[in-house]
Amino acid sequence: MTAETHVFERPPEGAAEDWSIPQQWEDYTAEEHETWDILFERQLKQLPGRASQAFLDGIDVLNLSKPGIPDFEELSERLMNATGWQVIAVPGLVPDDVFFDHLANRRFVAGNFIRERDQLDYLQEPDVFHDVFGHVPMLANPVFGDYMEAYGRGGLRALEYDSLDHLARLYWYTVEFGLIDEPEGLRIYGSGIVSSHGESLFALDDPSPNRIGFDMKRVMQTNYRIDDFQQVYFVIQSFEELLRVTVETDFAPLYAELEDSRDYAPDDVADEDSVITRGTQAYARERAAASPA
Ligand code: HBI
Ligand code: FE
User: Fold this and answer.
1) Cα distance between residue 179 and residue 166, in whole Å
2) Staple partner for 231: which of 108, 132, 257, 266, CB 3.0–4.6 Å?
């Protein structure tokens, strides 16, 4: 179970029609469990005062009877009791329609492999630490659980409208890289941030990125980068509001409108934006200077 390449076009050998595979928890090595424990401890220390209350409350669902990488069966039982969600193992990235169908049925797909020891801070593909530590605590929150299901349904519809790129941006800037405005200040709920040692500092503290109030259409117009820390974070006021706008939005006319509207670069700021912090973009500039395209 090492991280080679996990992108396939058809369910690979041993995977079911829905791309699920047995997790084979018994097959993880002591070193792999230890990798989980190292990452888990490190983030547990860093996240109080940074992660949203919903995420911190949800972490308890990961405290299972055995240490190390969670056993999905036991994890699913606990999650099922909390919000009716389950976690199933997949070999890597699955096709969009498969992904959305699982979400719409309250099944979260998780890679069963874990990053190598020399990649604790950087990896391209979501491994079990990102997928389980990053996503599962939020799925223990009833409102967020409903949002994820609504997103899955929306995804199935977006496929019909051929507007997946726009909807994928919503996922990116909420589920993966979202911030929330809580009474004590900005907090992280996006799984890509909470599972990253570096970005869980950067997203809140660094002067470089823009932090902008969430607006569904604006988010869907905004490109994102997958290779480095984000240049913009969108801030929601509450999970209830996020769920409400997602359920109430009529996506067909919105997609039609988006066809004819401009896209924003990750570092753009528009006149209509409700800017919370205007970033310097110094980090992104330094990185670009260090590695010219
Ligand atoms: N597959 N395993 C896995 N995990 C994902 O997050 C994922 C995926 N397939 C498609 C997909 N995400 C995207 O379509 C979403 O980001 C919109
Ligand atoms: Fe993710």
Assistant:
1) 19
2) 266
Q: Residue 2 pLDDT more than 50?
A: no
Q: Any idea of the CA torsion for 196, 200, 206, 208, to the nearest 10 degrees?
A: 50
Region 272-288 average pLDDT: 97
Give the distance between the most distant pair of CA atoms in the chain: 55
The DSSP 8-state label assigned to residue 234 in this structure reads E
Residue 5: band (very low, low, confident or very high) from pLDDT cuts 50, 70, 90: low
**Best mutation site among 96, 97, 107, 127 for ligand 1, i.e. most ligand atoms within 8 A of its Cβ?**
96
39-83 confidence digits (pLDDT tens)? 999 999 999 999 999 999 999 999 998 999 999 999 999 999 999
| Contact 109 CB / ligand 1 (< 6 Å) | yes
- C-alpha to C-alpha distance for 119 and 103, rounded to whole angstroms: 28
- Give backbone dihedrals phi and psi of 134, rounded to 5 degrees, phi first: -70, -45
Paired tokens of 62: 């990961």
The string over 133-151, giving b where at least 16 C-beta atoms fall within 10 Å of a residue's C-beta and e elsewhere, is bbbbbbbbbebbbbbbbbb
What SS3 state is found at 277? Answer: strand
Residue 108's H or E segment, with its range, is strand 107-111
Write down the pLDDT at residue 291: 83
Burial class of 222 by CB neighbour count within 10 A (0 to 12, 13 to 18, 19+): buried
- What's the chain's Rg over C-alpha atoms? 19
Please tell me if the CB atom of residue 170 comes closer than 6 angstroms to any atom of ligand 1. Answer: no
The answer, as to whether pTM is greater than 0.85, is: yes
d(CA 106, CA 266): 31
Question: Which ligand 1 atom sits nearest the alpha carbon of residue 92?
Answer: 2
| 99 CB near ligand 1 (under 6 Å) | yes
